[in-house]
């Protein structure tokens, strides 16, 4: 039976890669894609998702507009990690009719409805700030127990941050929502932290092989990464490489790979976690409680190692879309 997915995304370049991985996966049915602010304003996120679906010839999948800012307080400045539009600021052929292609139903309502219609069958893959998920549990407190499982790309386990000194981007953009989700979602929860993605990096030579495949999706990925500093090995020498050494990292794709093929994850930590909401340095950091000081009843699974050969094959396959029709 096909695995049912909802993808919640702030569609930057690595989200696009993760979405294409789900599209290419056998026995996966994407019920809908919900959009949230993060890598770009939510209006750009919606357009980015529509573009990815168009490139892969899968425009029948419904796309829903969700939260435009965090649960509490003013919106943080949107990162330029993947360009101001989330896809490298290189696409000129913007769709003037994009709003007509977005579903009228709000993303959070759609999420609740789709999960309620398919109880204990839906895997929710969260690739951006967790605002839509936090709102879902506020509107329907039973929402988490109706899920099959939850996969999150976000958080950090070593206190190494990529947007602040101690916090990872997705959690830092909306710490309150990350706190709510990790306190109130008791379904099986699998987290790919920033550090775990970085520690399972691939080579830049593989990245060149990946984007130079002869297929529309690969050509699209080559275009949107061409001028993006986040896909420049030179830029990374002064950023990520300081902590983890050189390598190509497609963050969100690790969480998606864990969902579509659980054998990709070869080692993980099972532990209680809590998101820190206070402090000028640690706000948004995910604390890992391996000594049970918090006395929580619910643990999560945090990926530490993956099968890089299997992961590489999933990436390669994801960019061979749409399949040529014979």
Automatic annotation (TrEMBL):
CDD domains: nuc_hydro_CeIAG. InterPro entries: Inosine/uridine_hydrolase_dom, IUN_hydrolase, Ribo_hydro-like. Gene3D superfamilies: Ribonucleoside hydrolase-like (3.90.245.10). GO terms for molecular function: hydrolase activity, hydrolyzing N-glycosyl compounds. It holds the Pfam family IU_nuc_hydro. Residues 5-312 form the Inosine/uridine-preferring nucleoside hydrolase domain. Belongs to the IUNH family. PANTHER family: SI:CH211-201H21.5, SI:CH211-201H21.5-RELATED. This is Inosine-uridine preferring nucleoside hydrolase-like. The gene is LOC103365784.
